[in-house]
Design brief:
alpha/beta, six-stranded mixed β-sheet, 22 helices, binds flavin-adenine dinucleotide
Length: 754
């Protein structure tokens, strides 16, 4: 279960980037939460790679999950909010993090651990043709494509790696091992592959001792790799590169692993940076220009400059954790002293490694085994999380020592109920002023910008007012995304009936906390909802907001419909095909997420489906002759289907094989993880005509899985069904034909056999 969600929030610590130092910070925060401190991680990638195992992943010795830390699970475990977004800037004056596609995020203290990427600026054609090794996820996608290309090719195929540091050398040897193995397995000739390493340095592995260099020079020679030193790549093309001295080399693929560079947003924001744009910090890892900002890992430029390496970032984790908490509590910071000598284990792509420590070096298979053991132990710390005791109620008022924090924490037990629990008028006014407030002429009074006791709507003649209301406890701690999903869920009822969204009233409960914290949470929540409503052509016309123990949100939505075109649950006709527009599984996946037992990418995919609007699906279904429709939500597929069948006095034959399923849902169901509503829904199994046959099917539990912002379920004439499905797929829905409507035959209405 998520921890510390009921503690009042006094301070916001924002971590940008899930790098090696931050994962250590988060784990430590999990072990020793700081009362009153809310921590948010903003991460571009939900699964963050562990650099030490990447060459092994490329060589084919590890799978994706072996060498990626699942930030979502780690954050759930630690009670840290995870915002999936790429940071593009900072407003240092107002202490805001600016991330793509979401509202600015306020912080009291900020820490940046966003790593680096190989620099290719100024190299002609590199952006178009080279494959940079970072960001890793993008590299891995393109690496898959390169393997396909090599396998599909015939004749010579030249691969060139630019960059002669440990990363470049390891990359080349791992790529070579993998590709040669793949060709050999297919009976193809691995000898048709050529490999070249180019470095601008005078020699390879310039940061390492001569003994290490000699060993790798030998390995590269034995493996038939051509090495060009003192030769920066000046231009990259589709099948060749040009070196600085004008020579050209054949290269059907160019991989880029040159020295580190950083995006320019820290510099643009006004942080002190070094000549290459890395954030200048002191030996406490604190920005030289902004004491409320810390930085660690590759993105930080320390007084005692060291090569950019994950080893240093990992070692900075404990110091960074101490200093962030100490800075918030006004205590003394600790110095980070980089290790003078450290054991580097550089792999040769074939389960063999070279050790480098100061002037000493060694090599052998046993070193690969040692490295494998060390790396797997490191990963277990993050991916095998211990069961944590759930926190009982709010945490005691200790930890963050400043006056305001103590006041906020101490005031909690005396918080009022009734109207006394409302969010203060000025907070609300400020939040509403920040929201996009598109009025509608039909709203006569009460809309944002024109407040009144209630909203007065003028309804157009000949149109029906269609209303629905939904309310949730937060199942995500990202208020913006939660607000957007809640709005999308509420609109689903309108789309099911073929109504056009018009306006909405919101009810929000925001956790207790400092005024600025309450304001920001409410703003994020309403901004998420307003964005979805705005995209649907509706306006957030008013509502009510209060403080409470946990985040909760609901919306009453109004839509307008043409009385002749209203789609009801009743109206299914025997012979019609049943179409479902979204995959099932959000109930079990979100339950697993709360128990930190779902993979981050499963939850992200489920969130993307929950955010997908049903507006277009509704239009497509109607255009293809749908005569009845509903949205699949809390009662699960079977519950909502039965409502339709009863209203239509019909039965249905379901094809369980055809049910679309979200990635990971079958795994979480198999692990026995169900939504708390599932047992209630399960009572409906009485309506199944062949319960034993259905029970044996792996998709059976999905019939009862409650959905949030689920898909539309509709009956479509059989002759239109294929075209309708095509149109839904083209519009981006993972829709499926899941069965057909049959004549009613008694109390059992649903058949699942062939
Ligand atoms: C092939 C290869 C092999 C390597 N092998 C080793 C090795 O064996 N040992 C070693 O010590 N080093 C190794 N390195 C170097 C190592 O990868 C880096 O030094 C290390 O990853 C830096 O760690 P970090 O914590 O600074 O950032 P990273 O590990 O790069 O993490 C940064 C995180 O921030 C996120 N992020 C980036 N930008 C943003 C943004 N704008 N907004 C939000 N999130 C963002 C990313 O998604 C990522 O999760 C290797 C490098 C390469 C290329």
């Amino acid at each position: 279960m998520q921890r510390s969600s009921t503690a009042p929030v006094a301070k916001d610590l924002v971590l940008v980037g899930g790098g090696h130092a931050h994962v250590g910070v988060i784990r430590r925060l999990a072990m020793k939460p700081v009362p009153g401190l809310r921590v948010t991680l903003v991460a571009r990638d939900i699964h963050t790679p562990y650099s030490g195992m990447l060459p092994g992943l490329i060589a084919g010795f590890y799978d994706y999950d072996d060498c990626h830390i699942d930030l979502r699970r780690l954050c759930r475990f630690a009670g840290v909010r995870l915002y999936h977004a790429e940071v593009e800037g900072l407003d240092l004056e107002n202490r805001l993090v600016l991330a793509a596609g979401r509202p600015p995020l306020r912080y009291d203290l900020l820490s940046i651990n966003t790593g680096s990427r190989p620099g290719a600026q100024g190299v002609e054609g590199a952006a178009q043709y080279a494959l940079p090794v970072k960001p890793i996820d993008r590299f891995l996608e393109r690496w898959e494509a390169l393997q396909e290309r090599v396998l599909a090719s015939s004749g010579p195929f030249e691969i060139l790696v630019a960059g002669g540091g440990a990363g470049g050398v390891e990359l080349l040897l791992a790529v070579q091992h993998r590709l040669q193995t793949l060709l050999r397995e297919r009976g193809d000739d691995p000898g048709r592959l050529g490999f070249t390493l180019c470095t601008a340095d005078r020699e390879i592995l310039a940061d390492h001792a001569p003994g290490v260099r000699r060993r790798f020079q030998r390995v590269l020679r034995e493996r038939g790799v051509r090495v060009w030193t003192g030769q920066p790549v000046a231009a990259v093309g589709p099948d060749r590169v040009r070196l600085a001295d004008g020579r050209t080399l054949e290269a059907h693929a160019t991989l880029w692993a040159t020295s580190a560079s950083t995006p320019d947003w820290p510099a643009r924001a006004g942080l002190a940076v070094d000549e290459a744009g890395f954030i200048r910090v002191d030996d406490h890892l604190r920005s030289l220009s902004h004491p409320e900002v810390f930085a660690a890992g590759d993105v930080a430029s320390l007084p005692d400059a060291r090569p950019k390496s994950g080893v240093f970032a990992v070692r900075q984790g404990p110091v960074l954790h101490h200093n962030l908490v100490a800075a918030l509590a006004g205590r003394r910071l600790r110095r980070y002293r980089p290790q003078r000598r450290f054991l580097g284990l550089i792999t040769t792509g074939d389960r063999y490694a070279v050790a480098s420590r100061g002037g000493w070096s060694a090599e052998g298979r046993w070193l690969w085994t040692l490295k494998d053991r060390i790396d797997r132990r490191f990963m277990r710390m993050f991916n095998e999380l211990p069961a944590m005791p759930e926190q009982e109620g709010p945490a005691p008022a200790e930890g963050l020592a400043d006056e305001e924090t103590r006041r906020v924490l101490a005031s909690l037990p005396m918080r009022c109920g009734g109207c006394g629990a409302k969010v203060g008028a000025t907070v609300l006014e400020r939040v509403l002023a920040r929201l996009p407030c598109a009025g509608r002429p039909e709203i006569l009074a009460g809309a944002p910008g024109d407040p009144d006791d209630a909203v007065a709507l003028r309804l157009p003649p000949e149109r029906l007012l269609v209303q629905s209301v939904d309310h949730f406890r937060a199942f995500l701690d990202d208020a913006y995304t939660f607000g957007a999903i809640a709005a999308n869920h509420a609109l689903g009822d309108l789309y099911a009936m073929g109504a056009e969204p018009h306006s909405a009233l919101a009810v929000a409960t925001v956790p207790y906390g400092r005024e600025t914290v309450v304001e920001e949470t409410l703003y994020e929540l309403l901004a998420g909802a307003a964005e979805v409503l705005g995209a649907a052509g509706a306006v957030l016309a008013g509502g009510h907001s209060g403080e409470g123990a946990e985040l909760a949100f609901g919306l009453a939505v109004n839509g307008l419909a043409d009385p002749q075109r209203l789609l009801r649950k009743g109206g299914l006709k025997p012979g019609q095909r049943l179409l479902l527009t979204k995959p099932l599984g959000t109930g079990t996946l979100m339950a697993a997420d709360m128990r930190h037992q779902a993979k981050g990418r499963w939850v992200e995919a489920a969130i993307a489906h929950m955010l997908q609007s049903s507006a277009e699906a509704s239009a497509i279904l109607r255009a293809h002759g749908a005569t009845a429709c509903t949205d699949v939500t809390g009662f699960g597929l079977l519950g909502h289907l039965l409502e339709m069948l009863r209203a239509s006095d019909a039965g249905a034959r379901l094809d369980l094989d055809a049910l679309p399923v979200l990635e990971g849902a079958l795994e979480t169901l198999a692990a026995g993880i169900q939504s708390s509503l599932q047992p209630e829904n399960l009572r409906l199994r009485r309506a199944l005509a062949e319960p034993q046959a259905a029970l044996a099917h792996p998709h059976y539990p999905l019939l009862f899985d409650p959905q949030t912002a689920g898909g539309l379920l509709a009956g479509v004439p059989p002759e239109q069904a294929d075209a309708c499905l095509d149109a839904l797929h083209r519009a981006g829905y993972r829709a499926a034909a899941i069965g057909e409507v049959v004549a009613a035959q008694g109390p059992e209405r649903v058949w699942t056999g062939a």
